[in-house]
Design goal:
Two copies of one chain form a homodimer.
Chain A lengths: L1 H15 L1 H14 L7 H10 L6 H12 L6 H24 L3 E2 L2 E2 L1 H4 L2 H22 L2 H24 L7 H26 L4 H28 L10 H5 L4 H8 L3 H12 L7 H11 L2 H21 L6 H14 L3
Antiparallel strand pairs in A: 1-2
Helix pairs in contact in A: 1-16, 2-5, 3-7, 4-5, 4-9, 5-7, 5-8, 5-9, 8-9, 9-10, 10-15, 12-15, 15-16
Chain lengths: 331, 331
């Protein structure tokens, strides 16, 4: 039921942006081609056409439309954002040695790690070519900064693994790298391309950032509190020793015995039967689920406050509903 | 002896550009830092400070100086070129599963593939940030195109492996991806940053391209004709089934029996004792060594012709000597 209700805002946005999205999809198909290396479009198509929701390019299109864009630069920008996203997915699957994404085998499994690394590099270069075509150095600056934050966040996640003493500050930095940096770059760049005023560009950036942070916090919560009907595998982060918010909150409130448990299971990765259930029980006992949900809700409130600073436009209530949808998955 | 003579042009250039190079090294050290993810500068320093020759950034500096650059944008550009080079080395070592580079263990061996992929991504993003600071969209265009050509060439090399029927056209495309694309982008961007005229920018681009193609052809030749005193491991390309120029020439002139040998050894990778020596003997028999050397020399001649189109400057004879040095390794 909640899922049914929840998918609506995303679909409404896609419907409103249908022409723009069609143009972006055409551009993506054109630019992922490589006349000389057919492996490139093969690998890319596997991922790009696997039915991703195009959430990030939609954020760019929505921001640009709200700010009254003319011309077609927002299509290039949206395609560029999707290429950066796809490149990071390809590299992430190598890094995590993933075998499934969006219900299908990953590219590194179907081809090899090598293809995933190189095709990711190709898409990254292609994304910068598209940005250059928009003629905006500021857009390039925004997305180059986002790319650096993404890579930095991934490295940080790598070095924070199995460290239950990770601070909330570091966690937030990882969350920005994984999700919020590209969300905020997508909305900010859309506004810049449309020539929006500084205060509006900042509001768009803040919306994307808050939406992205909430999105990732919810994702991290569902890794413990999710159900199969939502399509989430529960326990991946626990097994991989990723110090996410529900863990950090439970660890902060742990007594000595509980702390020893977290150190053994997540810190050393010495898992025993029933550990995941015990971890979930400790989270429930210390209110870590509720506190994590509250944190996500607070970010959603911030996202919607940022929208308040933007002019009235048919897209605006859709972006507000999209924000609500992010936490609606938790009910 | 030949080595002694050969290192001179490179050192002369480094001496002439000493102040610029010092500024570039400072910039590299500053920008490879990551306050939050210390793994990044660790991995980068391992490679950047391992005594690479800084050939590519020197090409940018030399081109910019020849064209009378003022200000400091050429330092940012040279650092950017070195970051792209370092990023591709990190990713190449993952792709090739290399264990040694520049006589030291590779980053993927010391840390892991994951760190190499992500730190490469970080440096790539950093390089675009530096380019944005130069304020030149054209420079960004040149280097984004180079980055796409590099990735495309690597994918092409991957799919051409073990195909002894690879065409010379595909080989040249691989060579441009591996080496010439960044060489030519380095010289072209240096000229653009200095505000050189179109004809001069084109001459600089052509010099870098021809130098890079010759450089890679010689490298591929040394993989069969090199000696240990030159520091080359002979036979890597043969074992990995990479269809390089000496192979393609020997295959083109092969009789049926020889073709069957190439197909077994390089096409199927079913190596037997003495195969490398037999391959070298076939190359000698068919004049493949000489023809490859002649091809490299022709590219060097083109590089020097391109220099002729540029104004007189103290750096110009050094760039000509650098071109001669590339083939001098073969004597």
């Amino acid at each position: 039921m909640s899922l049914d209700l929840a998918t609506k805002p995303h679909e409404a946005l896609a419907e409103w942006l249908a022409d723009d999205l069609a143009a972006v999809n055409t551009l993506i198909r054109e630019r992922m081609a490589s006349e000389h290396a057919p492996r490139i479009p093969e690998v890319t198509a596997h991922l790009v056409e696997a039915g991703g929701k195009r959430l990030r390019p939609m954020l760019t299109l929505a921001a640009a439309r709200m700010m009254g864009i003319e011309g077609e630069h927002h299509h290039r920008l949206a395609a560029s954002v999707e290429f950066i996203h796809t490149a990071t997915l390809l590299h992430d699957d190598v890094v995590d040695d993933s075998r499934q994404r969006r219900g299908r085998p990953t590219a590194n499994l179907l081809w090899d790690n090598t293809s995933s690394v190189l095709v990711g590099d190709y898409l990254f270069a292609r994304s910068f070519q598209l940005m250059v075509e928009t003629g905006s150095l500021r857009v390039l600056d925004i997305l180059a900064n986002a790319a650096a934050t993404i890579a930095e966040g991934e490295v940080l996640q790598l070095t924070a693994a199995r460290r239950i003493e990770t601070t909330e500050e570091t966690y937030l930095r990882i969350v920005r790298g994984k999700t919020a940096a590209l969300f905020s770059a997508a909305t900010e760049a859309g506004g810049v391309a449309a020539g929006a005023e500084e205060a509006q560009v900042e509001a768009l950036r803040a919306y994307g950032d808050a939406l992205g942070v909430a999105f990732q916090i919810v994702d991290d919560l569902l890794d413990y509190a999710g159900t199969e009907e939502i399509g989430k595998t529960v326990g991946d982060d626990f097994r991989e020793g990723k110090p996410t918010m529900p863990v950090l909150l439970a660890v902060a409130r742990a007594d000595d015995e509980e702390r020893a448990f977290w150190q053994r299971a997540m810190g050393r990765g010495a898992l025993e039967e029933g550990d995941l259930a015990h971890a979930q029980a400790l989270m429930a006992k210390h209110g870590a689920f509720d506190a994590t949900r509250d944190a996500a809700k607070a970010w959603i409130a911030r996202a919607k406050e940022s929208l308040e600073r933007l002019p009235e436009h048919p897209v605006k209530p859709m972006l507000a509903s999209l924000a609500d949808y992010v936490v609606a998955r938790l009910h």
